[in-house]
Design brief:
Elements: H1 2-17, H2 20-39, H3 50-74, H4 79-84, H5 86-91, H6 97-129, H7 136-166, H8 170-199, H9 206-213, H10 217-227, H11 230-236, H12 239-243, H13 249-272
């Protein structure tokens, strides 16, 4: 356990030295504050207050930004150290390879979690200071949005590690990381929409559609934060999808957790068999 903590602390120190923590926190805080100020404008007759509007805005931002930051953090964690010659030095110490992967993973999650909580927390504080009407349900929804955002980041950190242990060059890892981001954030939904249009409802019903969404962690996140809350779903235009959801929030959180565990376990297995 001490080895894992030591490696995680090393990753955090490297993040501080490379200005990753500061840069990510400032970026997310700046965008979150901008969206919160825009969200404090009148919202018409949809029944959504400033906090619900901010949740919808930040959730939409998270789907694009957090996976990209996570992949940039993690895609060269293993292959980059191998190129620099520091990986063999690290493995010369009495530390198991799974401890290296887990320690690095926890360090990067700490960086991403701190930046997300600080940035999005600043948006909530700005709303509270501005006198926005915030009830307990809104606070719970906002906290759930922050937690699920960190969990979504953990998914893509784990996918970044899987890339990093498979390839042998940093350039290849960077290309695959961008490909993963494009596939899950943009291309999957476009392909799913094309499939639905071509099918015309003949074979793909509501149940099959719900299961297809679980194969994309970004869509699971959307279901949690944009379709899983009544006021947010009305404002985000996902009220129809919300009415057809077959999975509760607990199941969706478990699905995101499975998306973390599967690539991280596979990355650990591949790295344990990799020849240096």
């Amino acid at each position: 356990m001490s080895a894992i903590v030591t490696i995680a602390a090393r990753e955090i120190r490297d993040g501080l030295r490379n200005r990753w923590v500061l840069g990510a926190a400032l970026l997310m805080a700046g965008l979150a504050l901008t969206l919160s100020f825009l969200g404090s404008a009148p919202t018409g007759e949809v029944g959504a207050g400033p906090l619900e509007v901010t949740i919808v805005s930040l959730s939409s931002l998270t789907i694009f930004l957090v996976p990209l930051i996570a992949l940039l953090l993690s895609h060269d964690s293993i292959v980059g150290e191998q190129d620099r010659g520091t990986l063999l030095l690290l493995l010369s110490y009495p530390v198991a390879r799974w401890q290296v992967v887990l320690g690095k993973f926890l360090g990067h999650i700490a960086i991403l979690g701190f930046a997300t909580a600080l940035g999005y927390g600043a948006a909530a504080a700005a709303l509270a200071i501005g006198g926005a009407d915030i009830d307990r349900e809104g606070i719970t929804a906002f906290a759930g949005m922050i937690g699920s955002s960190i969990l979504l980041g953990a998914v893509f950190v784990a996918l970044g590690y899987l890339v990093s242990v498979i390839v042998r060059e940093r350039a290849t890892a960077a290309g695959l990381a961008i490909g993963i981001w494009l596939a899950f954030v943009l291309l999957y939904d476009m392909a799913l929409l094309g499939l639905l249009v071509a099918d015309q409802g003949r074979t793909i019903g509501a149940a099959a559609f719900n299961w297809l969404l679980l194969f994309n962690p970004a869509d699971v996140y959307r279901l949690l934060n944009l379709a899983g809350l009544s006021k947010a779903s009305m404002f985000s235009g996902m009220a129809g999808l919300s009415g057809q959801m077959q999975f509760g929030r607990g199941v969706l959180f478990l699905a995101l957790a499975a998306w973390v565990a599967a690539p991280l376990s596979l990355a650990t297995l591949v790295f344990s068999r990799r020849q240096m």
